[in-house]
Design a protein that fits this description.
The protein is an alpha/beta fold. 39% of the residues lie in helices and 20% in strands. The structure holds adenosine-5'-diphosphate. It comes from Gracilibacillus halophilus YIM-C55.5. Keywords: ATP-binding, Cell membrane, Membrane, Nucleotide-binding, Translocase, Transport.
Length: 271
């Protein structure tokens, strides 16, 4: 079990300024994968930060597994929820990649042997084990993002929040990391919230929340989103290639199943 509920949440960074989030309510079910999309400045990152208690709402409540997120519960919540930001620079604390991934585990008092196992496994998962003794600051943007992901995966969170966390990876790197997330969702029942502009990523979500000016403008499935050209145009989104292809074939009289039914097959095609 690892679900998230926002109940009538309103938030602003400064008094006397307009609300950044205005009476937002939604639930992300356990083991669900939800993509948050919307224009820059619509409030997506603010939602992610509220979920992990980095910010506190002025009105409304946020619950993780039914437990309210507030100053008293924050450490408990952070052992269950892993957040990876777009800019990994802000997240580095160790002098080597290994120490950096170790940091979160030391805070949780994970025994030494278990710690070594988790660090090596998570570095392996993101393809960075060979870099364990390197200085994080010397790595490329994409490699830094991989390390930031490894640090969060090592903690084995039940909920993974990704705020454009693969934006510096090349398409192949992004796809292999996304595949890892899908595997974790399947095998470890992880709940998954992703802030993204990437419609290939949206395609794999169970549900899409479109955020517009601090409100939920749409709550739909990826398929419903891809059928609404006006929404795609409004939010500057491109239909994923595979969806475009099957639509085109359909117009030519060749009917394929909904590509959403073939996620496993698509995974294989992409690797
Ligand atoms: P998104 O992730 O959708 O781009 P954000 O949640 O980052 O949107 O920002 C929502 C609004 O809050 C924007 O108007 C932004 O300028 C403002 N904002 C974000 N962070 C801060 C901050 N630390 N202080 C003041 N205003 C902020």
């Amino acid at each position: 079990m690892s679900w998230i509920e926002f109940r009538h949440v309103s938030f602003r960074y400064h008094e006397n300024e307009p609300w950044v989030l205005d009476d937002v309510s939604f639930v992300v079910q356990s083991n669900e994968s939800v993509a948050l999309i919307g224009k820059n400045g619509s409030g997506k990152s603010t939602i992610a930060k509220l979920m992990i208690g980095l910010l506190q709402p002025q009105a409304g409540e946020i619950f993780i597994d039914g437990q309210i997120v507030n100053e008293e519960t924050i450490w408990d919540i952070r052992s269950q929820v892993g957040l990876v930001f777009q800019n990994p620079e802000n997240q580095f604390v160790g002098t080597t990649v290994y120490d950096d991934v170790a940091f979160g585990l030391e805070n949780l008092a994970v025994p030494r042997e278990e710690m070594t196992h988790r660090i090596e496994r998570s570095l392996q998962q993101v393809g960075m084990l060979a870099y364990r003794d390197r200085e994080p600051h010397d790595l490329s943007g994409g490699q830094k993002q991989r390390i930031a992901l490894a640090s969060v995966l090592a903690v084995e969170p039940k909920i993974l929040l990704l705020d454009e966390a693969t934006s510096m990876l090349d398409p192949h790197g992004t796809e292999s990391i996304n595949q890892l997330f899908r595997q974790l969702k399947r095998e470890q029942n992880m709940t998954h919230v992703t802030v993204t502009h990437d419609t290939e990523e949206v395609m794999y979500a169970d549900r899409v929340l479109v955020i517009d000016q601090g409100k939920i403008a749409e709550d739909c499935t990826p398929r419903q989103l891809f059928c609404r050209q006006e929404l795609l145009d409004e939010y500057g989104l491109r239909i994923p290639f595979i969806v475009e292809l099957t639509n085109e074939l359909y117009k030519q009289g060749i009917s394929l199943d909904d590509p959403m039914n073939h996620k496993e097959l698509l995974d294989q095609l992409w690797t």
